[in-house]
């Protein structure tokens, strides 16, 4: 359902507000470059800093602009189950193809708590759900056995965005649940994940180079592993620079340097450190993106 390349969209800001003009251009660029879908209101979209009204506006705007062109997998997670249900209901109402629900952060629930959180959302809103496992952000790992139980018990939980950084865990998930849609949540692990049965990536890097990310996945799907490896290693320096500071600081700065939108962030995200900006500019130049 959500195979291929999905872009974890940045949220452009201008004068403290969402810049919907720049946002529309970003979305159109994603369509023109051949991505399969977009993911608004995720980590890369600075969702924790969006007001409830903005969160809903961004999701609805993306559906309106992507309708008939690309799928929309909206970020609707929260550390409050009730709030996650609210945003998931919004996503269903405005016509999203599915939702991406991150594990609760700060609360540090048990595996039973995680199971009940996701099951309650799935039971309440009939929409395809992709779990989002990123312990580095949330401080809690959704264990493979918990994911398998959720997949078995909830017909609308169909996939997992895996950003644990552990190929062992990813392999365990696929072993326990062969039919689950296993999606890379980390650009550097896209090719390794595809090789163990993954179906694609929710990419940060495709905000600025969608064509290359699409090429990587399609080349692998055609069975040309040697060429896919060449693309993987070509992209590696740029992938690493995207995480030289906390995401989305580098990708937003890169988008700004490329004239796509402003580099404005919302606190507690802040302007990139000057030495890191210089490193980013050099890699963008080396890649041929910046003169």
**Can you tell me the CATH topology?**
TIM Barrel
CATH architecture: Alpha-Beta Barrel
Q: Into how many domains do the coordinates divide?
A: 1
Main sheet record: 8 strands, parallel, barrel
> Any idea what the shape is?
globular
The percent range for helix content is 40-55%
Provide an overview of this structure:
- This protein has 291 residues and is α/β, with parallel strands linked by helices.
- It has a single domain (4-222), classed as Aldolase class I (TIM Barrel, Alpha-Beta Barrel), CATH 3.20.20.
- It is 47% helix and 14% strand.
- The strands form 2 sheets. An 8-stranded parallel beta barrel has the order 1-4-5-6-7-8-9-10, surrounded by 6 helices.
- It is globular.
- The mean pLDDT is 97.
Task: Name its key features.
47% helix; alpha/beta; 12 helices; 291 residues; globular; TIM Barrel; single chain
Secondary structure layout plus pairing:
Elements lengths: L3 E5 L4 E2 L2 E2 L1 H13 L4 E3 L12 H15 L4 E5 L5 H14 L3 E5 L8 H14 L4 E5 L1 H4 L5 H10 L3 E6 L4 H10 L4 E4 L5 H6 L4 E4 L6 H12 L3 H17 L7 H9 L16 H13 L5
Parallel strand pairs: 1-4, 1-10, 4-5, 5-6, 6-7, 7-8, 8-9, 9-10
Antiparallel strand pairs: 2-3
Helix pairs in contact: 1-2, 2-3, 3-4, 4-6, 6-7, 9-10, 11-12
């Amino acid at each position: 359902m959500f195979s291929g390349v999905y872009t974890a969209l940045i949220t452009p800001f201008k004068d403290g507000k969402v810049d919907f003009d720049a946002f529309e251009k970003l979305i159109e660029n994603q369509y023109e470059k051949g991505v399969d879908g977009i993911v608004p209101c995720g980590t890369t979209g600075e969702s924790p800093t969006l007001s409830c009204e903005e969160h809903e506006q961004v999701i609805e705007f993306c559906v309106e602009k992507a309708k008939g062109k690309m799928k929309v997998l909206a970020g609707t997670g929260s550390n409050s189950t009730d709030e996650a249900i609210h945003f998931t209901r919004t996503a269903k109402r405005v016509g999203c193809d599915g939702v991406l629900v991150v594990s609760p952060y700060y609360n540090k629930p048990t595996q039973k708590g995680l199971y009940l959180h996701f099951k309650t959302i799935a039971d309440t809103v009939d929409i395809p759900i992709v779990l989002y496992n990123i312990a580095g952000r949330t401080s809690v790992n959704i264990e493979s056995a918990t994911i398998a139980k959720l997949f078995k018990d909830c017909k609308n939980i169909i996939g997992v965005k895996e950003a644990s950084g552990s190929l062992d865990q990813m392999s365990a998930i696929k072993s326990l649940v062969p039919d689950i849609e296993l999606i890379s949540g980390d650009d550097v692990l896209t090719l390794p994940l595809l090789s163990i049965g993954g179906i694609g990536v929710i990419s940060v890097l495709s905000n600025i180079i969608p064509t290359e990310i699409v090429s990587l996945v399609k080349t692998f799907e055609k069975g040309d592993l040697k060429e896919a490896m060449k693309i993987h290693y070509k992209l590696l320096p740029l992938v690493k620079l995207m995480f030289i500071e906390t995401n989305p600081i580098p990708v937003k700065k890169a988008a700004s340097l490329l004239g796509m939108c402003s580099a404005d962030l919302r606190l507690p995200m802040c302007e990139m450190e000057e030495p890191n900006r210089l490193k980013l500019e050099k890699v963008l130049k080396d890649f041929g993106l910046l003169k």
